[in-house]
Amino acid sequence: MKTIFQILLTLFFSVLLFSCQDKRNVVDIGTHPAEWTDKNSDKFHGKAVIEGGTESCQSCHGEDNLGGISGVSCMGAGCHIHYPHPAGFTEVSSDNFHGQYIKNTLAWDMLTCQSCHGEDYSREVNGTSCKTCHNGPEGPEECNTCHGSPSNIAPPRDLGKNISHTALGVGAHQIHVAETEVTRVMDCNRCHPEVLSFDDPNHIDDGIAEVIFDTLGTDGGRLTPTWDRNTGSCSETYCHGSFRFGSSGQIRGNSDPVIWTERKPSDPNAQCKFCHGLPPTGHIGQGSFNDPQSCNQCHGSVVNSNGEIANPSLHINRKENFN
Ligand code: HEC
Ligand code: HEC
Ligand code: HEC
Ligand code: HEC
Ligand code: HEC
Ligand code: HEC
Ligand code: HEC
Questions:
Q1: N or C: less crowded end of the chain, CB within 10 Å?
Q2: Omega before 157 cis (within 30°)?
Q3: Per-residue model confidence as pLDDT tens digits over 185-228
Q4: In the chain, which ranges are E strands?
Q5: Pocket of ligand 5, candidates 147, 168, 170: which has the most ligand atoms within 8 Å of its Cβ, to mutate?
Q6: Which atom of ligand 1 is nearest to the CA of 52?
Q7: Could you read off the pLDDT of 76-91 as tens digits, one per residue?
């Protein structure tokens, strides 16, 4: 009886010892196949992670993926910088949200995400791809992912998620690109370098949009309008009244700087006078033609008898237009 017990006890301890040794061996000798770090191999560790996530790795590499009992961290020199993802990476309200990370840490550069999530962002990792959520054809590179809205790609929202016109990134975008009734709505490149695609060299650099004016704003190069970030204003734009007409250039509009974050006046007369007098300085009949309706007498192709701009494409087009 005693011997049987001794045998059983020895057996129990050797099993215990064996399993302990086994555990230590895993850590000491390693568990991974030789091609574990060979990108081109079927056994590449990245493939295992893309299929199953990192949960199965964490028992040895630590819950924070910083090494755990294996002592080998996933982060650091030669390894991953932007992966594994922190908790909250998919929660909009978290400081760790991936949108914040792309903006603040990566300065909007998503190339690094493509290495695992696919060049077109559609590779499924752990059952999800970027396009599961960013479901437009270009995925997260859709033009309104970072600025604009479903109706158009100009702010709001701006790059800081602001929606109020008082934010510099929002300002008077919508009246220019969508809402104006006094002229044709404007393309982005009236005020910005032309951006033809996400990767366009004119697009992202320092995170602050470039403002340069095209031939309309400069009146074909005659003017040098400027955007001043400190005062949030534009000066010397053709559109806001730096025009010159008449035989000696005597007919001119206002040349005061216009504040980007202010709303246009609500009174209809004041709305016209925002850019030029009724009639403009230097125009014939000062004191007689002093309401919007009167313009219709001679500039009937542009202004109707109610004093409204009847043909937006003829107003603010660098041309004189009469009846
Ligand atoms: C049972 C413990 C254990 C598990 C589970 C584990 N590892 Fe490891 N891993 C180790 C140990 C120990 C090392 C260091 C020794 C070695 O290179 O094998 C290591 C090393 C690595 C290395 C570095 C290899 C090298 O040659 O530099 C990578 C990459 C790695 N593991 C990725 C993973 C991934 C990804 C997972 C999950 C799919 C995972 N590991 C799961 C224990 C583990
Ligand atoms: C689980 C859903 C989900 C997945 C998967 C996802 N995103 Fe997002 N992403 C969001 C949400 C939600 C927002 C925030 C939208 C908002 O603020 O209105 C967002 C925002 C962004 C932004 C905008 C950042 C900003 O501050 O304007 C970028 C860029 C982005 N994601 C890139 C990616 C990339 C790249 C991938 C894949 C590697 C990805 N996302 C995967 C849900 C997701
Ligand atoms: C080294 C590979 C790798 C890189 C680089 C990488 N990811 Fe991931 N990502 C993964 C894996 C694998 C998953 C699956 C869940 C996990 O393991 O965390 C994932 C999951 C996600 C998810 C969550 C999807 C969900 O619903 O669970 C988002 C969002 C995401 N990644 C965004 C990004 C963004 C944005 C970048 C670039 C900053 C990026 N990833 C870079 C490998 C990577
Ligand atoms: C009337 C001139 C004008 C037009 C037209 C215009 N923008 Fe802008 N845009 C600006 C000004 C001014 C700023 C502020 C620049 C700064 O921050 O210094 C700006 C800033 C931006 C920003 C950066 C916002 C931020 O948060 O910093 C984006 C993005 C932008 N514009 C996109 C567009 C797009 C897209 C269009 C066309 C659909 C467009 N803009 C049309 C004048 C214009
Ligand atoms: C990942 C976020 C993101 C996406 C997606 C995005 N933009 Fe932008 N966009 C920016 C940032 C950041 C700026 C500020 C520009 C800078 O850094 O100079 C900007 C600025 C702009 C501007 C103002 C001019 C300039 O470059 O400064 C235009 C116009 C513009 N984007 C158009 C587009 C178009 C068109 C697309 C789709 C093809 C697009 N954006 C997609 C982030 C984005
Ligand atoms: C945003 C600035 C702006 C506003 C607001 C504005 N104008 Fe003008 N207007 C101009 C400019 C610039 C010209 C110079 C001619 C051109 O380019 O069409 C002009 C020219 C005119 C002309 C001469 C005909 C023509 O088009 O050449 C008439 C008439 C006129 N405006 C009437 C009005 C009336 C009426 C209102 C108010 C309903 C008004 N404008 C509001 C900028 C403005
Ligand atoms: C009695 C006719 C008459 C009326 C009424 C009149 N204009 Fe004119 N306008 C002219 C003539 C003629 C010229 C060209 C003068 C020249 O080239 O020296 C002119 C030129 C202009 C110009 C510069 C060139 C152009 O067409 O853009 C502006 C701006 C303008 N008018 C605005 C107005 C506005 C605003 C009103 C209404 C408040 C108005 N005018 C009412 C006859 C009129």
A1: N
A2: yes
A3: 999 999 999 999 999 999 999 999 999 999 999 999 999 999 99
A4: 226-228, 233-235, 244-245, 251-252, 258-259
A5: 147
A6: 38
A7: 778 888 888 888 999 9
